[in-house]
Amino acid sequence: MNSKPNLSFLITVAVLLCIATVFSGCSKSQHTIVLDLGYNTHPIVGRGIFYDKATQSYQLYFINNQAENPLVYFFDLAGNKTDSLTINFHLQKSPNNIKFISKDSILYTLSREDLNQFYLINPKGDVLQSRDLKPLISKMGDEHDYYLVPFRNNCYTHFSLQQFTTTILFSPNQDYTEAHAHLSEVERQKALRTLEKKSFVLLVVQHLFTAPRIKMRPGLFDEKKSIISKTLLVDLAHSFYAYSPFSRVIYELDYNMNILSQTQIISEEQLIAGEDKKEDNQKVSYIDNIVYDKNTQDFFVIISIDNDVYSYNVSQLPVSSFMVKHYDKHFNLLGSKIFDGEEYNINSVLLANNKLFVEKRNETFGQLTYEIHTEI
User: Fold this and answer.
1) Is 76 in a helix, a strand, or coil?
2) 44 partner at 20 to 30 Å CA-CA among 5, 12, 91, 126?
3) pLDDT in tens, 235-262
4) 11-36 average pLDDT score
5) Cβ of 228: how many Cβ atoms within 10 Å?
């Protein structure tokens, strides 16, 4: 009887071990969780993440604005429902106008032509304090109307009511409208686009509910076109980061509005290609979002990519695809990953503990699926 191992058997074992190793590595770097919310989640706009000091843990939250009184559901990072609360006031604006500082401290904004109001609300829906920014903006000498831009709540930063950043966007007031009434429609639109170049206004708000002060910086971005509602500000301890989607750079500024640094994210070739396509109303590549990890100080930049942009070599992917680029605190590139937009939701990317939660499309009623990535 031949006692020597069978060669084909050994090869088969070796191959199986290699495959197991590969899949084991994949399972360690990514897995999925399914959240049972129990209401229609298509689309769901009120979602975010915050740090719960009571449990000393990060919490995901989702707002059901379809109920008579908005309901908020809390989940831990493993997908287990931990708590819920009812907000006893009507949301006149999108749930993304809510900022959870903690479960006991909720900041809500209501923005109209005649009002830029902040409300500090407890979980029972009681308004503890309110503040209208319009008189403060008027004191800065600006005669136009502005709207507060909704919050982006997909990462936990150094947000504090003592000092935080937000953005406001231009809205033509009655005087402006009457002054341009004699122009043709084409001329009015041209004039408005010229004005919109300077409509991105950075705002630093200090001591909101005690002795409020604001600092403004308009005109940081001067572009052919802006998606103002997607501008993002990442508050750090001594500085903050700002970007606008059709700019190729991310700016770091101090809280006196001085530019400290800038990092190019979109290549010159990609930017030029995008500008050319704007004239034909085609989709272009742009910075969609930035998420920041407070513990590791890493940045994840989400870029919507167009299938004609050759710099990423993704010509076979759908136009709705997006790339996540991972940077350290000095903006050294650590890695990148492309997500198929038909399978993943670019508008639902959350970050906590250096784990990236990317929503994977789930057609089951009342459920959300997140794929969790620990390595990119």
Assistant:
1) coil
2) 126
3) 777 888 887 765 678 888 888 888 899 8
4) 59
5) 18
| Amino acid in the structure at residue 338 | I
Report whether 350 contacts 360 (CB < 8 A): no
Q: Which residue has the higher pLDDT, 302 or 191?
A: 302
Q: List beta partners, residue 289.
A: 302
Instruction: Count CB atoms within 10 A of the CB of residue 143.
Output: 8
In the predicted structure, residue 272 carries a pLDDT above the cut 50: no
First to last CA, the chain: 52
> Angle at CA 95, nearest 5°, toward 74 and 283?
110
Residue 306, helix vs strand vs coil: coil
Output the DSSP codes for 247-291: SSEEEEE-TTS-EEEEEE-S-HHHHHHHHHHHTTT----EEEEEE
Cα–chain center distance at 122: 24
CA–CA distance, 359 with 347 (Å, rounded to integer): 8
Q: Give pairs for 221-229: CB < 8 Å, separation 24+.
A: 221/246, 221/247, 222/197, 222/198, 223/197, 223/247, 224/275, 224/278, 225/193, 225/278, 226/196, 226/197, 226/199, 226/200, 227/286, 228/149, 228/167, 228/169, 228/196, 228/199, 228/200, 229/149, 229/150, 229/169
